[in-house]
Amino acid sequence: MPSFMHVLTLTLLSGFASAASVIPSFPGLSVNKLNLVEANMAKIATHSWELGTLAETLTELKAPSLSVFSPFDLPPPRHLDSKLNASISEVLDLVTKVIRAKSPDSPTFIDGDGAAADPASLGVAVLLTNWTRTNLSDTSFEVAASQQLNHLLTVVPRADNGAISHREDQVQLWADFIYMVPPYLAYYGALSTGNESIALLQEAYDQCRAYREILRDADANLWQHIVLGTGIQDYTHWGTGNAWAAAGMLRVLETIRHSKVSSKFEGQKANLTSWVNEIVEATWKHQQTNGTLLNVLDDPNSFADSSSTALLAASTFRLASITHDYTHVPAAVKAFQLIEDSLTEDGWLLNTVDPLTFNTPSQPGVYSPEGQAFTILSAVSMA
Ligand SMILES: *[C@@H]1O[C@H](CO)[C@@H](O)[C@H](O)[C@H]1NC(C)=O
Ligand SMILES: *[C@@H]1O[C@H](CO)[C@@H](O)[C@H](O)[C@H]1NC(C)=O
Ligand SMILES: *[C@@H]1O[C@H](CO)[C@@H](O)[C@H](O)[C@H]1NC(C)=O
Ligand SMILES: *[C@@H]1O[C@H](CO)[C@@H](O)[C@H](O)[C@H]1NC(C)=O
Ligand SMILES: *[C@@H]1O[C@H](CO)[C@@H](O)[C@H](O)[C@H]1NC(C)=O
Ligand SMILES: *[C@@H]1O[C@H](CO)[C@@H](O)[C@H](O)[C@H]1NC(C)=O
């Protein structure tokens, strides 16, 4: 991992001081503060995608060597030493609770309130729990994982270009899907062998490609939020939607890169990298002077949203650590400073969008589980 402090110093020394010199000091969150933010998230995460995002966030925060962003090859170790076992225990406990509560014939890990994609956000953690389990006669995790996979691949309806619907009852695409499903398909592939491995990694990539084909607006290089189908639609360039897309594609990219068959996917990895970069580059053009992004990225009448600001900063740090192109890091550092300043003493992120309406700020005293998670992801991505 490169140190972004080092990069900023170099930027300053090499004369490109204007962007970097407004940054008063290298920001960072103490471990205590991060633990508060995390405990708060765990308190308020209830929906399926919030639990899945919590599991991913806990992995990146507490057991980073088991995250796809670590430099280690996949699959992960089968046997966890006691230190690693303790670090990942909250994730394993969360998954165990979810799978114990699941009825054996349910095709999904958990109820998704009509969303086909959201339950799958728990999938990487379920696969990790299966892979590292000590009770080898307990097949419940792998049975659940295979039911969830088959449901996504063979039951959920698809758009004409092959995009698996975000919803169960009709074909409708949400940018959120990219964080919920492709990372799961890819991780399943990286833990499989032979043709299945290649087919699932390819499917993860194909879903990103198919979603981008439909959701991306070429003139803005940003993604719409919800299209096709009936009922709710949102054609805006929603900050959180673009953040889900960028962060999800990064997880797929890293899973492919650390898989045994990485060398068979050169073109796919290059495309994923450029698709993440496309969002990151378009995003920071709309950054406000205090570092924030707006809830609808390119709508000046929209309101400031710290949640999407945090996940887009996280994605910018992650991308830079892969490509070693640090162009957008100063913007993301400035955004991170705003996130740090938007945290209360007791670890709640202020000025978030209400993640259930998409288009209104959170009510005073109400906090966003996503905002809590994205704060942690931005901090661990910068480290
Ligand atoms: C791992 O941690 C769990 C608690 O989360 C504990 O029950 C189990 O015995 C530990 N396993 C090992 C191998 O240390
Ligand atoms: C579950 O874990 C076992 C190792 O204990 C592994 O052989 C199997 O492939 C895993 N299943 C999945 C779906 O990853
Ligand atoms: C291991 O899993 C099997 C199958 O679920 C179960 O019957 C058994 O009680 C478990 N063993 C332990 C030690 O938990
Ligand atoms: C894997 O794919 C190759 C090429 O398509 C095919 O020849 C082979 O039979 C497949 N193997 C398995 C185990 O499905
Ligand atoms: C990468 O994207 C380009 C441009 O859209 C496309 O022509 C190419 O087929 C893609 N590569 C792969 C491996 O999908
Ligand atoms: C940052 O600036 C935006 C306007 O560009 C404003 O709406 C928002 O309240 C500011 N945020 C903070 C934390 O001052």
TrEMBL record:
GO terms for biological process: carbohydrate metabolic process. Pfam families: Glyco_hydro_88 (PF07470). The keyword Hydrolase applies. Residues 1-19 form the signal peptide. It comes from the Eukaryota. One of its GO terms (molecular function) is hydrolase activity. The keyword Signal applies. InterPro entries: 6-hairpin_glycosidase_sf, 6hp_glycosidase-like_sf, Glyco_hydro_88. Keywords: Hydrolase, Signal. PANTHER family: CELLULASE, EXPRESSED PROTEIN. This is Six-hairpin glycosidase.
